[in-house]
Amino acid sequence: MPLTRSNWQRNKDGLGVWEHRGKVAVAGWGQSPIDRRWDGVSLDKTMGAYTMIAIQNALKDAGLTLDDVDGLLTSPDTRVGQTWAPRPYFEAPYDSEDGITLCSGEWIQKQMGMKNVKYIESNSQAMAGLMGHAAQAVGEGEAEVLVVWYPMGNLEGRYEQGATNVNSGTYTRGNAAFNAAWGYQSGAQMNALMVFEQYCRKYGYPIDGGLAPFAVNQRRNGLMTPWGFYAQHEPYQITEEDYINSRYESEPLRILDCDRPVMGVAAFVYTTAARAKDMRQKPVYILNHATASDPARSTMATLEEHQESCRRLGARMYEGSGLSAADVDVFNPYDGYLTFTQQFFEGFNWHGVKEGEAMDFYKGDMRVEGPHPFLSSGGNNGTGRTRSAIMSDCIEQLRGQAGGMGDGVQHPGAPNPGPRQIQIRHETALMGALTPGGATFLMFSTDPMAS
Amino acid sequence: MPKQIPVPMPEHKPFWDALNEHKLVVQRCTNASCSEPGRLRYPPEPKCDACGSDQFDWKQVEGKGHILEYFVVHDSRIKRMQVDQPFNLALITLDEDPGLNFLSNLPGTAPGQVPVGGAVELFFEPIVPVDDLDPACNPNQLIHEWRVI
User: Fold this and answer.
1) What CATH number is attached to the domain comprising A269?
2) In B, which residues are within 8 Å of A165 by CB distance?
3) Pair B49, B41: CB distance under 8 Å
4) Which residues lie below 8 Å from residue B11, measured CB to CB, with a gap of 6+?
5) What is the predicted pLDDT for the residue at B43?
6) In a domain, A172, yes or no
7) Residues 6+ apart with CB under 8 A from A130
């Protein structure tokens, strides 16, 4: 059966070691420019244009050509094609936004002239499900050189407001009627905030302000990520005072807890371990992918539900990868809102952090040059809402190249590795997204037989 | 506070109609072999999350609850509610089954002055109507709300 949107998942307890453990590798990656928004006019800055740049960079990084590619994989669940932006963009014959605000596999195959593609799936999931899908697809032989790209769009207009967006209307329809009527908008934002507050009350942390050190470190790491939004467009450090003075979105959630929507694309080349060993870069092998999808029983998930889901996810990951928490060097859980990252942290017990201890960890040394380098790219919060930085950083750190431009090129005079390269052992990496209760994580290693 | 006006789906109509009779009802699994017989669910779902059965009836529940958590919305994306910013958004657990929770703006409680853990009671709030109301909506529709007691 062809792998489609969700039939690739390892989402049950007790599945044992992943059958393709160490047999699939990431052989290349590439990043497009990252802008705050698309201007609605420039055809060299569309989602299609940026996808082509990212793919070209990824293939260059891997030492491959377009003719080597036999699989294409992407997702529409990436904030592309946003409903609140002005329409239409162009007069006929543009009868589709594919290649403009979206970018399907079919469009890319045609535009880039890929002649040997046998597997295309454009309807996969958001990060990191997309990456889990890619791993399984190569493991099962759907493709031998699979290019997967993660497009994140940001168009004109106020986010989730205006035009035909549901938030601008008088009515709330369907299942949303049971939450939007009171002002509920986003699970990642609002449910996670509610759970974060429950967490702080349970473990005795301040509800407001306790995430300041985390936000500051994320920006610091992001400024050492040359291809990230802040390093390129707003290259200044924030302080804890800046955090405390930033405006509330939903008190106690501050604007600096929230990732910044951006326009950019990252692409990754997946291939078999056998083929990867002769490619340009040192392979980064995949030891497992694991998913936990645990819907809330009622309107909102509770702390207990999120903790249980993350515990389950951690157990599945360690069982399937054959590693334990003590084996994980690089740890990149999703941080789209800083309020939910601690659940992943504790579910995976990274660096011995147990339930209720993450906020204490944030007060300590989590710098990249220290003993506990956490989210070493700066994640979403520190690089803009790419959602892919957590993945790219795993590749860079395991190769020992953190600090490059993501274009497959060693730039003259640029340090490589850069100052973001972690100083502790960097042989394994764990990353995943999106939110507690619904997340996929992947385990990477420099050694396909790691134990 | 003008809320977005619910447009009921056909399968949810008994719920919204019950509100108009000043009753709060939730689904109750009627599958005799369910691992948790009589398990309640809210919001409505097609199937029981314990046994997967689609057999259910509507059970009226007493409108008593407690505040589990809350935050204060300062920058809502929902246009209709922006005029009332900042406003509370609270999560209420049902005393009859604390596994069920409901959203509330806690009318009458100042933003940020919410007594977490405190008791609340149900009341029924009229929608704020508009001209040219969607014909699928009842102009006298009531919405379930909660207030601190």
Assistant:
1) 3.40.47.10
2) 77
3) yes
4) B44, B46
5) 97
6) no
7) A73, A74, A75, A124, A148, A150
Q: Which domain holds residue B122?
A: 10-148
Residue A32 lies in a domain: yes
Q: Which of A170, A201, A250 sits opposite B74 (nearest CB)?
A: A250
Mean pLDDT along residues A217-224? 96
How far CA B28 is from CA of A216, B12, B39, B65, in Å, comes to 48, 14, 6, 18
Domain contains B3: no
Q: How confident is the model at residue A32 (pLDDT cuts 50, 70, 90)?
A: very high
Supply φ then ψ for residue A381, to 5 degrees: -65, -35
Query: Is residue B52 assigned to a domain?
Result: yes
Q: Read off the pLDDT of each residue in A264-278 and give the average, rounded to a whole number.
A: 97
For the four alpha carbons of A342, A332, A386 and A438, in that order, the dihedral sign comes to negative
In-domain check, residue B1: no
Dihedrals φ, ψ of A168, to 5°? -90, -5
Encode burial over A384-408: b for 16+ CB neighbours within 10 A, e otherwise.
bbbbbbbbbbbbbbbbebbbbbbbb
Q: Does A163 touch chain B (CB under 8 A)?
A: no
Mean pLDDT of A88-92: 81
Domain range for A78 is 24-159+262-276
Asked if residue A257 belongs to a domain, the reply is no
Q: How many domains does chain A have?
A: 1
Give the CA diameter of chain B: 49
**Average pLDDT over every residue of A208-219:** 97
- Judge whether A148 lies within some domain: yes
Using an 8 Å CB-CB cutoff, list residues of chain B that contact chain A: 3-9, 12, 41-44, 49, 68-81, 86-87, 89, 91, 99-105, 112, 116, 130, 134, 137, 143
Query: Total structural domains in chain B?
Result: 1
Cβ–Cβ below 8 Å for B3 and A160? no
**Is B143 part of a structural domain of the chain?**
yes
- Which positions in chain A touch B5 (Cβ < 8 Å)? 170-172, 181
Contact, A129 vs A442, CB < 8 A? no
Beta strands in A276-406 (DSSP E): 284-293, 330-333
Q: Which one of B12, B87, B100 has the shortest CB-CB distance to A183?
A: B87
Assess whether pLDDT exceeds 70 at residue B135: yes
Using pLDDT thresholds of 50, 70 and 90, give the confidence band for residue B131: confident
Asked if A354 has any chain B CB less than 8 Å from its own CB, the reply is no
